[in-house]
Here is the input.
Amino acid sequence: MTVIVTGGAGFIGSNFIFYMLNAHPDYRIVCVDKLTYAGNLSTLRSVMNNPAFSFVKLDICDRSGVYSLFEKEKPDMVVNFAAESHVDRSIEDASVFLQTNIIGTSVMMDACRKYGIRRYHQVSTDEVYGDLPLDRPDLFFTEETPIHTSSPYSSSKAGADLLVLAYHRTFGMPVSISRCSNNYGPYHFPEKLIPLMIINALGNKPLPVYGKGINVRDWLYVEDHCKAIDLILHNGRAGEVYNVGGHNEMRNIDIVKLICKELGKPESLITYVADRKGHDLRYAIDPTKIRNELGWMPETKFEDGIRRTIKWYLDNRAWWEEIINGDYQQYYEKMYKDRQKA
Ligand code: NAD
Ligand code: DAU
Here is the structure.
């Protein structure tokens, strides 16, 4: 079995590659990644010499490059992680989000259609459902919740999802989609909440909490997401969407305080800054379908996962120091310097 994994030099894609090489030692994994600011080849160092693994630097929007790759590798399955993934960047400039997340997805699916595929899996997000109110803890996103996006990022992911489902209906393509909640774990890019707070706290720098810090996210350890995708890929029904989440809702401010506590840092580092435009209030997944159909359950409890994650950032300083000492500095300046107090 040959599996093409796009976006495998990013956070979840790399964790998925490690998971698959371990779970299916007889599979060939071909990682396709453009190596944008979010992709790091150093992340894949431990598998580079594995004969079951190969890396191809390629933009998923490059149609002839993608077709040549399919001709050469003859993949049985494709898992599409490649995307622009940061909401704040999409608010600054949506164009690359539309290009990679929608056009790139269409190129990958056209290649699958042309060369044949057993399964195309689209890695999507709970953000396509928009948000839930803070005062209705009884409400959850199910697969039937209408698409109702808030940001350019989530709109581009929703566009891709609709296209994937259209290829199933129109061309009978064997597709599946997972819509997962917020992931955390090793190799999470420093611009996102949890790694940003760990890294800033370690440097005794301000911890910039948007608005009042009361927005709620439903956190899942990255390996649990990888297991869910593996199950859907092999046992999920074609043409179906599966929500993935572990009923682990937390307010941003509580996460930041927990990180301070674990690192022995003072809460006085917390700085409330201007809110994100259009900031989604609450995400909460109902995972009944994947549990009932595929027997998936999250295995890592948040208190264990967050400790493991913090330890990973302490043990792997070289990985994130290389990132924050590069272009990331200009990004951080631009996004946080003039952010007025909320
Ligand atoms: P990430 O930003 O860490 O990694 C994205 C990867 O895609 C990078 O390696 C990047 O180089 C690559 N890439 C970007 N544009 C490309 C292109 N045109 N061609 C080839 N490669 C390209 O993202 P992530 O957090 O690992 O998210 C992966 C996927 O999972 C995304 O599709 C995202 O929408 C989805 N998702 C993420 C989360 C989360 O909490 N991070 C939750 C649910 C779903
Ligand atoms: O729900 C799944 C989504 O989770 C994925 O589709 C996205 O790719 C992924 O980036 C993530 O989106 P969020 O916007 O929820 O993640 P982020 O880490 O950017 O922010 C989490 C929360 O923390 C959000 O409410 C905004 C807040 N925040 C974030 C940053 C970076 C802060 O308060 N301060 C910050 O500096």
